[in-house]
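[recover] target loaded
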C-alpha cells in the first residue's frame, strides 16, 4: 500500500468585495525562491506559517466572488479561521474613502494629491491590507532587509529557512517549500551559519534577541492590541527602529497607517508621484499627512503604480558578508 496522503482541511469564504489574492499577499513574499511563499500557474497562492498551533501550509484560490482555501498540518485550522483577516476583511476601505474626501477639501495641493491617489487606487480594486497575526514571522525578514539590497536579504532568508526550518506540511514539501523555524531555533543558530547566510553580527544579534521576546511580541497581534503598543514594544528591542517596526506592523497587524520611514527608495517614489520631484523622509511625511490613518496604503498604491523617478547615479551595491 502507498503512504497515506496528508489530511487536508478546506474553507470557502465570500468577501463581498473584490480581493486580489496575489496582490494582497505579496508583501509576505521575500524575493524569488522564497520557500514560504509561492504562486503556481493555476493562480493559486501557497504560503507556510508557524501558527500558535504549529506549522501549516495554506493554498488559496478565488473564482466567482468566492475564496477557496485548503490547509495542511497542525496549524491548518488556525490558518483557515484567520483567512479573512489575512485577506483584508478588517481593512477599513470606507475610512480610506473618507480620508480621500477630507484631503480633497483641505486645500489645492492636497486636493491634487488626493485626486492622484484616488485614480491610482481605482486601478487596484482588489488591493487589501491584510493581517497575518504572526509578528516574529514578519520581524526576521524585516531585520534581514535592514540597510542592504533586497537580493542580499532574500538570499539570507532563503538559506536560513531552508537549513533550519522544516518541510511544509502537505504537498508543498515536494516543491521545496518550508516553514520558518520557531524562535528557540533562531536563538541557537551558530555564528558560522549566520556568516554563511551572509548576515553580519549586528543583524544576527537583533534577531536572536527578538526571538527571546517572541511570545510577548506575538501577543500584540493575537490580542488585537493597538499598533502603537506594538510599535512601542518592537522599538524597545535593540536594533529595531522605526523602519523595521513599520514593516512588521504592516504585515502582522494590517496597519494601513505605518509608512516605512527610512526606506532607501520610498521618499523619491512618493515625491515623484505627487509633486514631480524626489524628496526625503520629512518631505514624504509632509505629503502623506493629509492621508493620516492610511499613509501606508497610499505608499503601497503609489509603489504598485510603477511610477518612478528617472534612474540616475550608481545603484546601492550588494555587500556579501560571507567574504568578510
Amino acid at each position: 500500500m502507498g503512504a497515506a496522503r496528508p489530511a487536508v482541511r478546506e474553507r470557502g469564504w465570500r468577501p463581498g468585495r473584490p480581493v486580489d489574492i496575489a496582490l494582497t499577499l505579496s508583501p509576505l513574499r521575500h524575493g524569488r525562491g522564497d520557500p514560504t511563499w509561492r504562486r503556481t500557474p493555476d493562480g493559486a497562492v501557497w504560503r507556510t506559517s508557524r501558527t500558535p498551533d504549529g506549522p501549516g501550509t495554506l493554498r488559496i484560490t478565488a473564482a466567482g466572488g468566492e475564496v477557496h482555501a485548503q490547509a495542511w498540518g497542525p496549524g491548518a485550522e488556525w490558518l483557515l479561521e484567520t483567512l479573512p483577516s489575512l485577506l483584508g476583511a478588517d481593512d477599513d476601505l470606507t475610512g480610506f474613502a473618507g480620508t480621500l474626501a477630507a484631503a480633497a477639501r483641505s486645500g489645492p495641493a492636497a486636493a491634487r494629491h488626493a485626486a492622484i491617489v484616488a485614480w491610482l487606487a481605482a486601478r487596484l480594486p482588489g488591493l487589501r491590507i491584510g493581517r497575518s497575526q504572526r509578528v516574529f514571522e514578519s520581524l526576521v525578514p524585516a531585520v534581514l532587509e535592514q540597510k542592504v539590497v533586497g537580493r542580499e536579504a532574500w538570499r539570507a532568508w532563503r538559506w536560513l529557512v531552508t537549513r533550519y526550518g522544516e518541510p511544509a506540511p502537505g504537498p508543498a514539501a515536494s516543491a521545496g517549500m518550508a516553514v520558518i523555524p520557531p524562535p528557540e531555533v533562531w536563538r541557537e543558530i551558530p555564528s558560522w551559519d549566520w556568516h554563511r547566510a551572509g548576515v553580519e553580527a549586528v543583524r544576527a544579534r537583533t534577531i536572536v534577541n527578538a526571538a527571546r521576546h517572541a511570545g510577548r511580541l506575538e501577543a500584540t497581534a493575537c490580542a488585537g492590541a493597538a499598533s502603537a503598543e506594538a510599535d512601542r514594544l518592537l522599538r524597545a528591542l535593540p536594533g529595531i527602529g522605526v523602519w523595521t517596526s513599520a514593516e512588521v506592523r504592516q504585515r502582522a497587524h494590517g496597519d494601513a497607517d505605518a509608512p516605512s520611514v527610512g526606506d532607501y527608495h520610498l521618499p523619491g517614489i512618493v515625491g515623484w508621484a505627487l509633486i514631480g520631484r524626489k524628496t526625503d523622509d520629512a518631505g514624504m511625511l509632509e505629503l502623506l499627512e493629509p492621508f493620516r490613518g492610511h499613509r501606508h496604503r497610499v505608499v503601497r498604491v503609489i509603489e504598485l503604480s510603477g511610477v518612478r523617478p528617472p534612474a540616475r547615479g550608481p545603484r546601492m551595491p550588494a555587500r556579501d558578508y560571507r567574504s568578510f
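[recover] notes: Residues 108-122 form the longest helix (15 residues).
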